[in-house]
Amino acid sequence: MIKVIALLLLLQNAASGEKYYLEFDRFLYPGVPNFPEYGVMMVLDGFLAFYHDEKVNHINQDWLKQYVKEHTEEWQSDVGACLAYNFIFKDQTKNFNTQSNQSEGNEIIQQIIRCDWDEETDNTNGHVKFGNNGEDFITLDAKTETWFATNPKAEVIIETWNADKTTYEITKYIIQNGCLPLLKAFVKYEKSYLNTKVLPSVFLLQKSPSSPVTCHATGFFPDKGIMFWRKDGEEIHEGVEHGDLLPNDDGSFQMSVYLEALKIPPEDWGRYECVFQLSGVQNYVVTKLDQDSIRSNNPKKEGLLTTTSIAVIATMGCVIVIIIVALSSTAFKKRNVTHSIERSSTPSSETASL
Known about the structure:
The protein is α+β, with helices and mostly antiparallel strands and 354 residues long. Helix content is 35%, strand content 30%. The relative contact order is 0.09.
Protein backbone atom coordinates (compact mmCIF):
# COMPACT_ATOMS: atom_id res chain seq x y z
CA MET A 1 0.00 0.00 0.00
CA ILE A 2 2.86 2.39 0.91
CA LYS A 3 4.52 1.76 -2.49
CA VAL A 4 1.32 2.75 -4.33
CA ILE A 5 0.96 5.91 -2.23
CA ALA A 6 4.59 6.89 -2.79
CA LEU A 7 4.25 6.43 -6.55
CA LEU A 8 1.10 8.57 -6.69
CA LEU A 9 2.75 11.32 -4.68
CA LEU A 10 5.78 11.28 -6.96
CA LEU A 11 3.51 12.24 -9.86
CA GLN A 12 2.42 15.44 -8.09
CA ASN A 13 4.20 18.73 -8.69
CA ALA A 14 6.57 19.47 -5.83
CA ALA A 15 6.99 23.00 -4.55
CA SER A 16 9.40 25.08 -6.59
CA GLY A 17 12.01 27.65 -5.67
CA GLU A 18 11.94 28.63 -2.00
CA LYS A 19 8.34 27.56 -1.41
CA TYR A 20 7.54 24.46 0.64
CA TYR A 21 4.48 22.70 1.92
CA LEU A 22 3.60 20.09 4.50
CA GLU A 23 0.40 18.11 4.19
CA PHE A 24 -1.45 15.78 6.54
CA ASP A 25 -3.82 13.39 4.76
CA ARG A 26 -6.19 11.54 7.07
CA PHE A 27 -8.47 8.70 6.04
CA LEU A 28 -11.40 6.93 7.66
CA TYR A 29 -12.46 3.57 6.21
CA PRO A 30 -15.20 2.39 8.59
CA GLY A 31 -16.36 -1.09 7.58
CA VAL A 32 -14.30 -1.23 4.36
CA PRO A 33 -12.79 -4.74 4.01
CA ASN A 34 -8.98 -5.09 4.02
CA PHE A 35 -8.43 -1.45 4.98
CA PRO A 36 -7.44 0.06 8.32
CA GLU A 37 -10.18 2.00 10.07
CA TYR A 38 -7.95 5.05 10.37
CA GLY A 39 -4.78 6.13 8.57
CA VAL A 40 -2.66 9.26 8.31
CA MET A 41 0.07 10.30 5.85
CA MET A 42 2.53 13.17 6.22
CA VAL A 43 3.74 14.57 2.90
CA LEU A 44 6.56 17.10 2.43
CA ASP A 45 6.83 18.77 -0.97
CA GLY A 46 5.09 15.90 -2.74
CA PHE A 47 7.06 13.06 -1.10
CA LEU A 48 5.67 10.67 1.46
CA ALA A 49 7.54 11.19 4.74
CA PHE A 50 5.48 9.23 7.28
CA TYR A 51 2.54 6.83 7.29
CA HIS A 52 0.58 5.39 10.22
CA ASP A 53 -2.39 3.13 10.78
CA GLU A 54 -3.21 0.56 13.47
CA LYS A 55 -0.81 -1.96 11.88
CA VAL A 56 1.89 0.17 10.23
CA ASN A 57 4.10 2.94 11.59
CA HIS A 58 6.55 3.76 8.81
CA ILE A 59 9.07 6.60 8.34
CA ASN A 60 9.78 6.81 4.64
CA GLN A 61 12.61 9.36 4.41
CA ASP A 62 16.16 9.22 5.75
CA TRP A 63 16.15 12.91 6.66
CA LEU A 64 13.08 12.31 8.87
CA LYS A 65 14.80 9.37 10.55
CA GLN A 66 17.66 11.71 11.42
CA TYR A 67 15.21 14.32 12.75
CA VAL A 68 13.48 11.71 14.93
CA LYS A 69 16.85 10.53 16.25
CA GLU A 70 17.79 14.06 17.33
CA HIS A 71 14.30 15.12 18.52
CA THR A 72 12.87 11.90 19.92
CA GLU A 73 10.67 13.41 22.65
CA GLU A 74 9.29 16.13 20.38
CA TRP A 75 8.53 13.56 17.68
CA GLN A 76 6.73 11.24 20.08
CA SER A 77 4.66 14.18 21.32
CA ASP A 78 3.79 15.23 17.76
CA VAL A 79 2.83 11.69 16.75
CA GLY A 80 0.75 11.30 19.90
CA ALA A 81 -1.14 14.50 19.15
CA CYS A 82 -1.64 13.44 15.55
CA LEU A 83 -3.10 10.10 16.57
CA ALA A 84 -5.27 11.66 19.28
CA TYR A 85 -6.84 13.84 16.60
CA ASN A 86 -8.35 10.63 15.27
CA PHE A 87 -11.21 10.97 17.77
CA ILE A 88 -11.88 14.61 16.82
CA PHE A 89 -11.81 13.68 13.12
CA LYS A 90 -14.37 10.94 13.66
CA ASP A 91 -16.63 13.30 15.61
CA GLN A 92 -16.35 16.06 12.99
CA THR A 93 -17.38 13.73 10.16
CA LYS A 94 -19.95 11.55 11.93
CA ASN A 95 -22.82 13.12 9.94
CA PHE A 96 -21.14 13.02 6.52
CA ASN A 97 -22.79 9.85 5.31
CA THR A 98 -26.09 10.65 6.96
CA GLN A 99 -26.35 13.62 4.63
CA SER A 100 -25.17 11.71 1.54
CA ASN A 101 -27.38 8.68 2.22
CA GLN A 102 -24.35 6.44 2.08
CA SER A 103 -25.03 2.98 3.50
CA GLU A 104 -22.97 2.22 6.60
CA GLY A 105 -19.95 0.03 6.03
CA ASN A 106 -18.76 1.52 2.73
CA GLU A 107 -17.66 5.00 3.78
CA ILE A 108 -14.36 6.54 2.77
CA ILE A 109 -13.77 9.94 4.38
CA GLN A 110 -10.66 12.05 3.74
CA GLN A 111 -9.29 15.21 5.27
CA ILE A 112 -6.34 17.23 3.97
CA ILE A 113 -4.70 19.87 6.16
CA ARG A 114 -1.89 21.69 4.40
CA CYS A 115 0.40 24.57 5.30
CA ASP A 116 2.56 26.53 2.82
CA TRP A 117 5.69 28.51 3.60
CA ASP A 118 7.59 30.94 1.39
CA GLU A 119 11.06 30.95 2.93
CA GLU A 120 12.09 34.11 1.09
CA THR A 121 9.14 36.28 2.21
CA ASP A 122 8.17 34.20 5.30
CA ASN A 123 4.56 34.25 4.11
CA THR A 124 2.43 31.31 5.25
CA ASN A 125 -0.93 29.90 4.23
CA GLY A 126 -3.24 27.13 5.35
CA HIS A 127 -5.60 24.94 3.34
CA VAL A 128 -8.19 22.48 4.55
CA LYS A 129 -10.65 20.30 2.68
CA PHE A 130 -12.76 17.22 3.30
CA GLY A 131 -13.72 14.47 0.86
CA ASN A 132 -16.53 11.97 1.13
CA ASN A 133 -16.58 8.71 -0.81
CA GLY A 134 -14.36 10.04 -3.58
CA GLU A 135 -16.15 13.39 -3.91
CA ASP A 136 -15.11 16.88 -2.79
CA PHE A 137 -17.26 17.75 0.19
CA ILE A 138 -16.16 20.75 2.26
CA THR A 139 -13.38 23.33 1.97
CA LEU A 140 -12.15 26.20 4.12
CA ASP A 141 -11.58 29.81 3.10
CA ALA A 142 -8.92 30.73 5.64
CA LYS A 143 -9.10 34.46 4.86
CA THR A 144 -12.79 34.74 5.73
CA GLU A 145 -12.69 31.88 8.25
CA THR A 146 -15.66 30.36 6.45
CA TRP A 147 -16.49 26.79 5.47
CA PHE A 148 -17.94 26.18 1.99
CA ALA A 149 -19.84 23.17 0.73
CA THR A 150 -18.25 21.88 -2.47
CA ASN A 151 -21.04 19.28 -2.58
CA PRO A 152 -24.74 20.14 -2.07
CA LYS A 153 -24.99 17.23 0.39
CA ALA A 154 -22.72 19.17 2.78
CA GLU A 155 -24.87 22.31 3.06
CA VAL A 156 -26.47 21.30 6.37
CA ILE A 157 -23.09 20.50 7.93
CA ILE A 158 -21.38 23.80 7.04
CA GLU A 159 -24.31 25.77 8.47
CA THR A 160 -23.50 24.21 11.83
CA TRP A 161 -19.74 24.66 11.43
CA ASN A 162 -20.02 28.34 10.46
CA ALA A 163 -22.40 29.04 13.32
CA ASP A 164 -20.12 27.34 15.84
CA LYS A 165 -16.44 28.26 15.34
CA THR A 166 -15.15 25.21 17.22
CA THR A 167 -14.19 23.24 14.09
CA TYR A 168 -12.43 26.27 12.62
CA GLU A 169 -10.50 27.04 15.83
CA ILE A 170 -9.29 23.43 16.10
CA THR A 171 -8.13 23.49 12.49
CA LYS A 172 -6.45 26.87 12.87
CA TYR A 173 -4.57 25.62 15.94
CA ILE A 174 -3.31 22.54 14.05
CA ILE A 175 -2.01 24.68 11.17
CA GLN A 176 -0.30 27.34 13.30
CA ASN A 177 1.04 25.19 16.15
CA GLY A 178 1.50 21.84 14.47
CA CYS A 179 1.88 22.05 10.72
CA LEU A 180 3.95 25.23 10.26
CA PRO A 181 6.58 24.59 13.00
CA LEU A 182 7.09 21.06 11.70
CA LEU A 183 7.33 22.31 8.10
CA LYS A 184 10.12 24.78 8.94
CA ALA A 185 12.01 22.17 10.96
CA PHE A 186 11.63 19.51 8.26
CA VAL A 187 12.83 21.83 5.48
CA LYS A 188 16.12 22.28 7.35
CA TYR A 189 16.69 18.52 7.51
CA GLU A 190 15.44 17.89 3.98
CA LYS A 191 17.84 20.50 2.56
CA SER A 192 20.75 18.92 4.36
CA TYR A 193 19.79 15.51 2.99
CA LEU A 194 19.19 16.80 -0.54
CA ASN A 195 22.78 18.01 -0.63
CA THR A 196 23.83 14.38 -0.31
CA LYS A 197 24.50 12.66 -3.62
CA VAL A 198 24.22 8.88 -3.78
CA LEU A 199 25.27 6.98 -6.90
CA PRO A 200 23.35 3.83 -7.85
CA SER A 201 24.16 0.18 -8.23
CA VAL A 202 23.89 -0.70 -11.94
CA PHE A 203 23.08 -4.13 -13.38
CA LEU A 204 22.65 -5.60 -16.86
CA LEU A 205 19.59 -7.84 -17.13
CA GLN A 206 18.09 -9.94 -19.93
CA LYS A 207 15.09 -12.26 -19.80
CA SER A 208 16.13 -14.32 -22.82
CA PRO A 209 18.71 -14.11 -25.65
CA SER A 210 16.09 -12.47 -27.87
CA SER A 211 15.02 -9.88 -25.26
CA PRO A 212 16.44 -6.36 -25.01
CA VAL A 213 19.31 -5.87 -22.59
CA THR A 214 18.12 -3.86 -19.60
CA CYS A 215 20.52 -1.50 -17.88
CA HIS A 216 18.99 -1.03 -14.43
CA ALA A 217 20.16 1.58 -11.88
CA THR A 218 18.79 1.56 -8.33
CA GLY A 219 19.52 3.28 -5.02
CA PHE A 220 20.48 6.73 -6.34
CA PHE A 221 19.53 10.06 -4.76
CA PRO A 222 18.22 12.61 -5.48
CA ASP A 223 16.00 11.92 -8.48
CA LYS A 224 18.05 14.11 -10.86
CA GLY A 225 19.60 11.27 -12.81
CA ILE A 226 19.71 10.38 -16.50
CA MET A 227 20.62 7.13 -18.28
CA PHE A 228 21.52 6.41 -21.90
CA TRP A 229 23.34 3.94 -24.14
CA ARG A 230 26.32 5.03 -26.19
CA LYS A 231 28.45 3.49 -28.95
CA ASP A 232 32.09 4.42 -29.40
CA GLY A 233 31.55 7.21 -26.84
CA GLU A 234 28.54 8.76 -28.65
CA GLU A 235 24.98 8.62 -27.29
CA ILE A 236 22.62 6.54 -29.46
CA HIS A 237 18.84 6.59 -29.79
CA GLU A 238 18.07 3.90 -32.33
CA GLY A 239 17.01 0.66 -30.67
CA VAL A 240 16.95 2.37 -27.26
CA GLU A 241 13.92 2.73 -24.97
CA HIS A 242 13.80 4.59 -21.66
CA GLY A 243 11.88 3.35 -18.60
CA ASP A 244 10.16 5.44 -15.93
CA LEU A 245 11.74 6.99 -12.87
CA LEU A 246 10.39 5.08 -9.85
CA PRO A 247 10.76 5.55 -6.07
CA ASN A 248 12.19 2.94 -3.71
CA ASP A 249 10.86 2.39 -0.20
CA ASP A 250 13.93 4.00 1.38
CA GLY A 251 13.47 7.31 -0.47
CA SER A 252 16.02 6.56 -3.20
CA PHE A 253 15.13 6.02 -6.85
CA GLN A 254 15.50 3.57 -9.71
CA MET A 255 15.33 3.68 -13.50
CA SER A 256 16.11 1.54 -16.53
CA VAL A 257 17.12 1.96 -20.17
CA TYR A 258 16.74 -0.81 -22.74
CA LEU A 259 18.89 -1.74 -25.74
CA GLU A 260 17.88 -3.99 -28.65
CA ALA A 261 21.07 -6.05 -28.67
CA LEU A 262 19.86 -8.95 -30.86
CA LYS A 263 20.96 -7.19 -34.05
CA ILE A 264 24.37 -6.24 -32.67
CA PRO A 265 27.15 -8.64 -33.79
CA PRO A 266 28.85 -10.25 -30.77
CA GLU A 267 32.20 -8.86 -31.83
CA ASP A 268 30.78 -5.29 -31.62
CA TRP A 269 29.35 -5.57 -28.07
CA GLY A 270 32.48 -4.06 -26.55
CA ARG A 271 31.76 -0.80 -28.37
CA TYR A 272 28.54 -0.24 -26.39
CA GLU A 273 28.20 1.22 -22.89
CA CYS A 274 25.37 2.09 -20.51
CA VAL A 275 25.94 5.45 -18.81
CA PHE A 276 24.30 6.82 -15.66
CA GLN A 277 24.79 10.48 -14.80
CA LEU A 278 23.68 12.09 -11.51
CA SER A 279 23.24 15.84 -11.48
CA GLY A 280 25.99 17.58 -9.52
CA VAL A 281 28.34 14.56 -9.65
CA GLN A 282 31.26 14.65 -12.09
CA ASN A 283 31.89 10.91 -12.17
CA TYR A 284 29.61 8.81 -14.37
CA VAL A 285 28.69 5.20 -13.76
CA VAL A 286 29.70 3.39 -16.97
CA THR A 287 28.79 -0.25 -17.60
CA LYS A 288 30.11 -2.01 -20.71
CA LEU A 289 27.84 -4.28 -22.70
CA ASP A 290 29.42 -7.60 -21.79
CA GLN A 291 27.83 -11.03 -22.22
CA ASP A 292 29.46 -12.33 -19.04
CA SER A 293 28.00 -9.50 -16.93
CA ILE A 294 24.37 -10.03 -17.91
CA ARG A 295 22.05 -11.51 -15.32
CA SER A 296 19.45 -13.72 -16.95
CA ASN A 297 16.60 -16.05 -16.01
CA ASN A 298 17.59 -18.22 -18.96
CA PRO A 299 20.30 -20.70 -17.94
CA LYS A 300 21.23 -21.41 -21.56
CA LYS A 301 22.59 -18.55 -23.64
CA GLU A 302 22.12 -19.33 -27.28
CA GLY A 303 24.38 -18.50 -30.17
CA LEU A 304 27.52 -17.50 -28.31
CA LEU A 305 29.87 -19.34 -25.93
CA THR A 306 31.35 -16.87 -23.50
CA THR A 307 35.00 -16.88 -22.50
CA THR A 308 33.97 -18.12 -19.06
CA SER A 309 31.93 -20.95 -20.58
CA ILE A 310 34.85 -22.04 -22.77
CA ALA A 311 37.21 -21.95 -19.80
CA VAL A 312 34.82 -24.04 -17.70
CA ILE A 313 34.37 -26.61 -20.48
CA ALA A 314 38.14 -26.84 -21.04
CA THR A 315 38.78 -27.22 -17.34
CA MET A 316 36.11 -29.91 -17.00
CA GLY A 317 37.62 -31.71 -19.98
CA CYS A 318 41.05 -31.72 -18.37
CA VAL A 319 39.60 -32.97 -15.10
CA ILE A 320 37.76 -35.80 -16.88
CA VAL A 321 40.94 -36.85 -18.72
CA ILE A 322 42.90 -36.85 -15.46
CA ILE A 323 40.22 -38.95 -13.76
CA ILE A 324 40.15 -41.47 -16.64
CA VAL A 325 43.96 -41.77 -16.60
CA ALA A 326 43.96 -42.18 -12.83
CA LEU A 327 41.25 -44.84 -12.94
CA SER A 328 42.98 -46.66 -15.77
CA SER A 329 46.29 -46.61 -13.91
CA THR A 330 44.61 -47.87 -10.74
CA ALA A 331 42.83 -50.64 -12.62
CA PHE A 332 46.08 -51.61 -14.34
CA LYS A 333 47.94 -51.78 -11.03
CA LYS A 334 45.15 -53.86 -9.48
CA ARG A 335 45.20 -56.24 -12.43
CA ASN A 336 48.98 -56.73 -12.16
CA VAL A 337 48.79 -57.32 -8.40
CA THR A 338 46.00 -59.88 -8.89
CA HIS A 339 48.01 -61.75 -11.49
CA SER A 340 51.08 -61.78 -9.20
CA ILE A 341 49.01 -63.21 -6.33
CA GLU A 342 47.52 -65.86 -8.58
CA ARG A 343 50.99 -66.91 -9.81
CA SER A 344 52.44 -67.06 -6.32
CA SER A 345 49.49 -69.06 -4.93
CA THR A 346 49.44 -71.70 -7.71
CA PRO A 347 51.59 -74.76 -6.66
CA SER A 348 54.31 -75.89 -9.03
CA SER A 349 54.45 -79.49 -10.24
CA GLU A 350 57.47 -80.20 -8.07
CA THR A 351 55.87 -78.97 -4.88
CA ALA A 352 52.68 -80.81 -5.61
CA SER A 353 54.39 -84.20 -5.86
CA LEU A 354 55.96 -84.08 -2.38
